[in-house]
Amino acid sequence: MRGVGKSYAGTVVLQGVALELHAGEVLALTGENGAGKSTLSKILCGLVQDFDGALELDGAAFVPRSRRDAEAHGVRMVMQELGLIPTLTVAENLLLDRLPNRMGWLDNERIRSLAREQLAKIGLTGIDPDTPVARLGIGQQQMVEIARNLQDGTRVLVLDEPTAMLTPAEIEHLFEQIALMKARGVAIVYVSHRLEELQRIADRVAVLRDGRLVDVRAMQGVQEHELVERMVGHVVQDNEGRARRSRGERRLSARGLRRGAWVRDVSLDLYAGEIMGLAGLVGSGRTELVRLLFGADRAEAGEISIFDEHGKPRSDASPNWRSPVHAIEAGVGLVTEDRKSQGLLLPQSIRVNTTLAGVGKVASAGWLQKGREGDVARSWITRLRIRSRSAEQAVSTLSGGNQQKVVFARWLHQPCDVLLLDEPTRGVDVGARADLYNEMDRMVAERKAVLMVSSDLRELMAMCDRIGVMHGGSLVAVFERGEWTEQQLLAAAFGNTLEEHKRKKAPSP
After folding, report:
1. How many other β-carbons are positioned within 10 Å of the β-carbon of residue 278?
2. Averaged pLDDT, 54-63
3. Which residues form the ABC transporter domain (predicted)?
4. 31 has pLDDT over 60
5. 167 or 434: which carries more pLDDT confidence?
6. What is the pLDDT of residue 14?
7. Are 2-232 and 249-502 the same fold in CATH?
8. What is the percent of the chain where pLDDT is above 90?
9. Buried-exposed string 8-21: b where 16+ CB fall within 10 A, e elsewhere
10. Angstrom distance (rounded) from CA 437 to CA 424
11. Fold for domain 249-502?
12. CB-side neighbour CA atoms (13 Å) of 24
């Protein structure tokens, strides 16, 4: 890449980027959300054609006219946002551009056989190729997307946040495949905010900030804090050693919640002024539990109770939500796991998305007041440092981290006494993540109760006062700050029971 630049409506996204990528190496590409990583990747892979500068592939001019054109040259990309067709099977998605046939009729046996070979490359032997993609969890869908691009003709592979939705075992399978591809001479661009991963697999690291390339260096010996400072331009505070917050009154209580095999007799309490974390493997029931607490799904059994600021049960709050509307009326908000499909109205503006859950506050006599909406949105844009041209910008055009800030702004505008945060920093860079952590600290300082689901144990250990662990739909352990270790949390996630945990805590007779 030589002098690559790109602007949208007068806003400079990339400027003068020059990079080289060598066969058989992993180049880590990192930077804050909005720094230009995805745009640079899309230019390389033919998804953006109108740009400044030039590309070369093996010393010859490379001008991909489309993604298909780039793939024909062996340049492939696994995008952060899934590109699978949910109504088709796993096998059909894997082989969509090369479905084998006999005289125009699909060869289903051959399709299944090839799909199994492709899945086996990343350890997905347990997935039936005939399963419709819509029936898979998000983590499994991500692995299918990766498997689709691990083809023998690949020369350059761009992986954009490939592990954001994967379990530790799936990540290890992916890293094994990356090592094999390196050995075959494939050049790999690995886009990620997980700096510990970059230290494991990258040969070099390139850092973008505000559309400019600010650093390229060998990965060996680079400290995490050095990369963070290069990415954001300043020192970011570390929360690992924080003290336990002072617990206030109980704000939410759930007793015996059950829904099929996903949530089995779960009871928990959320308290004002603290963050309770929820850990567990993909499929353990974390998201399903959060959806029950918000009324997005109806519980088959159990009750949910809401309490006022004095810890007294609220008579106006039903013990069983009939819909998210009732949860919102009771003061419960939810930041969903998938912001694009469940959390945002993508074609709508920042203004509309920010006020969506509390339109009554920006209405007069039943009519929305656009000027008042704009004032509210602009205040949150400033407070949360949302990178945007204006409050009227469509959220679909924002980076992932800035989209997530808009979702946060909605519930801060509402406001809510209980916040349910499902993977609140997935696909969010360290700078935006620090901004969201600051808002979470502010929430609990205002005596709100927060439940935080995360696949990142380090994040939970840094932010939470208690951590519950889900396994097989059950809450198998709850650790207080100061009790846990990463090994204990992982052991519980793989099946240690709450009784076993209590026995280990009990003093010897």
Report:
1. 27
2. 94
3. 1-235, 246-497
4. yes
5. 434
6. 93
7. yes
8. 43
9. eeeeebbbebebeb
10. 10
11. Rossmann fold (3.40.50)
12. 3
- Answer whether 133's CB lies under 8 Å from 93's CB: yes
* CB-based contact 382:376 (threshold 8 Å): no
Count CB atoms within 10 A of the CB of residue 35.
Answer: 28
Give the CA diameter of the chain.
77
327 alpha-carbon distance from chain centroid:
24
Q: What is the pLDDT of residue 509?
A: 47
Do 400 and 80 form a contact (C-beta atoms < 8 A)? yes
Query: Residue 10 has which token pair?
Result: 């007068």
Which residue is it, tokens 């994040």?
459
Let me know how long the chain is: 509
- pLDDT of 496 strictly over 60: no
CB 133 within 8 A of CB 85: yes
The CA distance from 2 to 127, in Å, is 42
d(C-alpha 127, C-alpha 130), whole Å: 9
3-state helix/strand/coil string of 446-481: CCCEEEEECCCHHHHHHHCCEEEEEECCEEEEEEEC
Burial of 445 (0-12, 13-18, 19+ CB in 10 A): exposed
List the structure tokens of 17. Answer: 């980027």
| Residue linked to tokens 């390339």 | 213
Confidence category of residue 383, pLDDT binned at 50, 70, 90: very high
Strand partners, 363: 368
Q: What is the pLDDT of residues 73-82, one digit of tens each?
A: 999 998 876 7
Which region holds residue 34: left if phi is over 0, alpha if psi is between -120 and 50, else beta?
left
Count of H-run helices and E-run strands, the chain: 17, 24
Burial class (CB within 10 angstroms; exposed 0-12, middle 13-18, buried 19+) of 206 = buried
Q: Which CATH class is domain 2-232?
A: alpha beta
Residue written as token pair 């000027």: 371
> How does pLDDT run across 404-426, given as a tens digit for each residue?
999 999 999 987 999 999 999 88
CB 415 within 8 A of CB 244: no
Domain ranges, ordered by start, for the chain = 2-232, 249-502
Q: Which residues contact 235 (CB under 8 A, 6 or more apart)?
A: 225, 228, 229
Any idea of the CA torsion for 412, 413, 417, 422, to the nearest 10 degrees? Answer: -50
DSSP category for residue 340: I
Helix axis angle for 138-149 and 168-183, nearest 10°, is 10
H/E run at residue 403: helix 400-413
β-bridge pairing 274-279 and 263-271 = unpaired
